[in-house]
Design goal:
47% of the residues lie in helices and 9% in strands. With 201 residues, the protein is mostly helical.
Length: 201
């Protein structure tokens, strides 16, 4: 039985704790690959067990991961993510400069990760089947919206994603984990660098 909660809206303490590269990678590994020991995580992430154990405890202190005593044997401790998804709004931390700085760092980190993962896919895609190469696409759209309209658009997109997360329906071929990003933001006119390709891909 999957005991993970769906989404956590990060508190100031949680966002400050999570604003650390290794802690983000540890939490991501537990969410993507399931429960693991500090030793296994250290091996996977190329770090040492001591650092991994320390940062897992920091994540546990704010309720983002938890130990699974029933899986442990002797000194072996297993950890799992408590939630499937972390969400936050930077404006929630306007009165907390440290949390706001942590949220800003997280936003920048995830943009960098998106670019890295997209580049990894482009480098590896020739090794995938035609079906996967046709299915994997990116698009950019230019819309004229108010903040309220953008919020409603995001809510609609989140609902579609949640439907596929909980009940993807029938499909053909082997399933794989898929990275899907949405990022709607106002066009900053004085920073355009060549502009957008326009609607669609």
């Amino acid at each position: 039985m999957d005991e993970q909660q769906s989404t956590v809206w990060l508190t100031g303490d949680q966002v400050r704790t999570l604003a650390h590269p290794l802690r983000l990678r540890l939490l991501g590994a537990l969410r993507l690959d399931g429960p693991a020991t500090a030793t296994a995580l250290a091996h996977e992430l190329g770090t040492n067990t001591g650092a991994t154990s320390y940062h897992l405890r920091k994540l546990a202190d704010v309720g983002l991961v938890r130990e699974e005593p029933a899986r442990g044997t002797g000194r072996e401790r297993w950890w799992r993510s408590v939630h499937k998804v972390s969400s936050w709004r930077a404006t929630s931390f306007d009165a907390d400069p440290d949390a706001r700085a942590a949220a800003d760092w997280l936003n920048s980190y995830f943009v960098q990760q998106f670019v890295r993962l997209a580049e990894d896919w482009h480098a590896a895609r020739d090794g995938y089947s035609t079906e996967w190469r046709d299915a994997a696409e990116y698009s950019d759209y230019i819309l004229t919206l108010t903040p309220d309209q953008l919020s409603r658009l995001n809510a609609d997109l989140h609902a579609v994603v949640e439907r596929y997360r909980t009940d993807p329906g029938p499909g053909h071929g082997a399933a794989e984990q898929v990275m899907l990003y949405t990022y709607g933001f106002p066009r900053v006119v004085n920073s355009d660098r060549g502009g957008s390709a326009g609607d669609g891909s």
